[in-house]
Amino acid sequence: MGQSVIRSALTIGAIGLGLALNALDAASAGAQDWPIRPVTIVIPVAAGSGGDIVGRILAPYISELLGRPVIVENVGGAGGITAVSRVARAAPDGYQIVLGNAGTHSLNQTLYKRLPYNAATDFAPVALTVETPIAVIARADLPVNGLQDLLSYMKANHARMQFGSPGAGTMVHLACARLNALIGVDITHVPYRGAAPAMQDLMAGRIDYQCATFAPVIPQIEGNLVKAIALLQRTRSPALPTLETAHEQGLTGFEAATWYAFFLPKGTPKAIVQKLNEVTVAALNMPAVQQRLKEVGTEPVAPERRSPEYLQEFVASEIKKWAAAIKTSGVSLD
């Protein structure tokens, strides 16, 4: 090979290396400077729902800490798939964030035959933010008091009982399906088009019980329109401290909650992930945020559960945890 050819090859190689280094420097600088324009938090549910409330509580404080506007955009439909897929395909530059939940990043992975994203591998986990417990509630005139009474009644009367939910494959449907499977009963499931009609029929006595996201049903419990049976978490809620947990009533280890977490697209620079994690944690630590979350029946997760590493492991464990319940229920979606 001639010297001129060698020199040309070396020159081209040097140029290529220089361009790569410049790109890395630019990416690093971009991560350090992020954000330089407004950031969008995509909420995969309709306005006014639990995830929307949580996102809108956190957004202004995150905006203040970042020093840039934070836009909250609701993108509902298809069980959250539309919104989550959009963020999965977005540029990994930190400007598209999704507030994922137990449905979008756990249940959907098993529920859907052809899910256009992988909840465990297609995102850069940022932070688990809050959990909202699920409660078991019954019609007001059901002749039971407490969880053990309900379980005994279910065993004796399962052939003529019905339980409701806002829809097949929802977290609350599967929580009750797990409870039924645990005691070995097959009870008719009545899926509704949303939480409101399910609650209306429970109050009217047309169905016997349901599992429900706790915060929205507190008024019905306090008004004695439905009977509160148990909270499906280890500790009582300050929003209704008289309601005993399933753990206290002898069903140890049985927990179910709706949770919310921030995710960025896969490949987002670690510096951006870390910065968003830090401002999210700082927002969760603010007394005003904690008070507002308490008012809507939820609360931040413990500090040791807020890291990106924890969220990565948590998502994988949640997918595994609920896969069995989904398969047992027989629900499968295209």
Q: Which percent bin holds the helix content?
A: 40-55%
* Order of SSEs: HEHEHEHEHEHEHEHEEHHEH
The number of helices is 11
Strand content: 15-25%
What gap, in angstroms, lies between the N and C termini? Answer: 60 Å
**SS content category:** alpha/beta
* Rg over C-alpha atoms, rounded to the nearest angstrom: 24 Å
Please give the number of β-strands: 10
As residue ranges, the low-confidence spans are 1-29
Assign an overall shape: globular
- Main pleated sheet: 10 strands, mixed
Question: Mean of the pLDDT scores?
Answer: 89
Describe this structure in words.
This protein is of the alpha/beta class and 334 residues long. The protein has helices at 3-33, 50-66, 81-89, 103-111, 147-157, 171-183, 195-203, 214-222, 270-284, 287-295, 308-329, and strands spanning 39-43, 70-74, 96-101, 123-139, 162-165, 188-191, 209-213, 226-231, 257-265, 299-300. Strand 1, helix 2 (50-66) and strand 2 (70-74) form a beta-alpha-beta unit. Helix 2 (50-66) packs across helix 9, helix 4 (103-111) packs parallel to helix 11 (308-329) and helix 6 (171-183) crosses helix 11 (308-329). The longest helix has 31 residues, at 3-33.
